[in-house]
Write a structure and sequence with these properties.
- By secondary structure, this protein is an alpha/beta fold.
- It folds into two domains: 2-221 and 396-409, Aldehyde Dehydrogenase, Chain A, domain 1; 228-371, Aldehyde Dehydrogenase, Chain A, domain 2 (3-Layer(aba) Sandwich), CATH 3.40.309.
- Helix content is 42%, strand content 19%.
- The chain is built from 14 helices and 16 strands.
- Helix 12 links the parallel strand 9 and strand 10.
- It is globular and about 70 Å long.
- It starts with a helix and ends in an 8-residue tail after the last strand.
């Protein structure tokens, strides 16, 4: 398996060299062709996905995993549109981030360059094939994709469209490689491919991400949990709060940006809590609440300490009464996975304090946590959401898949002894 990864990585490294000479128009043409191929292959992709779904249902995969696995016509169209959107983004390679001139006349520029070879390990998310392929190519990188066994047919069908795009633009097919084996040893070989793979991106459940973070010998962009919070402040508009809370929890419960904990200001619990509970319960959501709130509504289940640290990825939400924004910030910073947290309030001072003091990759004011998505940020797609602090944080899009180098231009300057 080590030899396989070495060969793939070396081919990818050669592709990066070729891509460094490719024009922005050439990369965009490849991605538009790939997007068109996905649209044309909608039936083929859907049939492949149906095979994966049938096998997944036989294995009794969770509702969250099935939701992530499913590709219906709407999702296939969105996937293709995302690739096209990436194609139309400005090319980051060669972009001057900053430039200045020293007193000696030496000009210094910080310029974007590709990261290199990226390894993506994922499960139950066939759309990652398209997202990762598009983003890495746009940023001038090569990628090695290792999809999960549950999405093998869907992944192959999408990858074929990416290959068609590369061929049409005259770019090397080794720029977007899909690992053919499902042998778990391949994952271990990728994680220890120091000097061959420049960064690993895991997209999957907690066990996969924990494994990658524990065993990787190369840098990792990852988040372990999506324990996201929505705080309803005493100065919130109730109608707005009801709309946001229901969407944040129930739009898609299996995504990492779904709200898992709802915090309600104690000053408005008596007026705000019941309507919020009515909406959630009517939508089929189980509500697990602190003792104070259970005493207000017997339809609720009593929350345990573990509920404040749980990513449900299901129609379940934990609810807690807190003492104003102080209590909300304290709870979030103690229990958040530093992914995405939101405040609902009409008080801009309170909102700004929340946005400043909550230590998460994404913070929102008067908006659903389900906007934690690279496509919604205008990135076209994302390769993942990073909750770390090094290099990239939040949705990892085209710019986050670059690093930089310094380019110095002089007129004969020498450094004095």
């Amino acid at each position: 398996m080590k030899i396989l990864i070495e060969n793939m990585a070396q081919s990818a490294r050669s592709a990066v060299q070729t891509l460094s000479l490719a024009t922005a128009a050439q990369k965009s043409a490849a991605l538009h062709a790939a997007a068109n191929a996905m649209r044309d292959a909608e039936n083929t992709i859907q049939m492949a996905n149906q095979r994966d779904m049938a096998a997944a249902q036989e294995k009794n995969l969770t509702a969250a995993l099935l939701d992530r696995l499913e590709l219906n016509p709407k999702r296939i169209t969105a996937m293709a549109n995302g690739v096209a959107m990436v194609a139309d983004l400005p090319d980051p390679v060669g972009q001057v981030i900053d430039a200045w001139t020293r007193p000696n006349g030496l000009n210094i520029a910080r310029v974007r360059v590709p990261l290199g070879v990226i390894g993506v390990i994922y499960e139950s998310r066939p759309n990652v094939t398209a997202d990762a392929g598009a983003l890495t190519l746009k940023a001038g990188n090569a990628v090695i994709l290792r999809g999960g066994s549950e999405s093998v047919h869907s992944t192959k069908a999408i990858h074929a469209c990416l290959m068609a795009g590369l061929r049409s633009a005259g770019l090397p097919e080794t720029a977007i490689q899909l690992m053919s084996t499902q042998d778990r040893a391949a994952v271990g070989a990728m994680l220890t491919a120091t000097g061959l793979i420049d960064v690993i991106v895991p997209r999957g459940g907690k066990s996969l991400v924990a494994l990658v973070q524990a065993e990787a010998r190369v840098p990792v962009f990852a988040h372990l949990d999506g324990i996201c919070h929505t705080y309803v402040d005493k100065d919130a508009d109730l109608a707005m709060a009801r709309s946001i809370v229901l969407n944040a929890k129930m739009r898609r419960t299996g995504v990492c940006g779904a709200t898992e904990t709802l915090l309600i200001d104690s000053a408005v619990c008596d007026t705000f809590a019941m309507p919020l509970f009515d909406d959630l319960l009517a939508a089929g959501c189980e509500v697990r609440a602190c003792a104070d709130l259970v005493s207000l509504d017997k339809r609720l289940h009593r929350a345990t300490d573990a509920d404040w640290d749980t990513e449900y990825l299901d129609s379940i939400i934990a609810v807690k009464r807190v003492d104003g924004v102080d209590g909300a910030i304290a709870h979030i910073n103690a229990h958040s996975s530093h992914h995405t947290d939101a405040i609902i309030t009409d008080n801009t001072t309170t909102a700004e304090r929340f946005l400043r003091e909550v230590d998460s990759a994404i913070v929102l004011h008067n908006a659903s946590t389900q906007f934690a998505d690279g496509g919604e940020f205008g990135f076209g797609a994302e390769i993942g959401i990073s909750t770390g602090r090094m290099h990239a944080r939040g949705p990892v899009g085209v710019e986050q898949l670059t690093t930089f180098k310094y380019v110095l231009r002089g007129t004969g300057q020498v450094r004095p002894g």
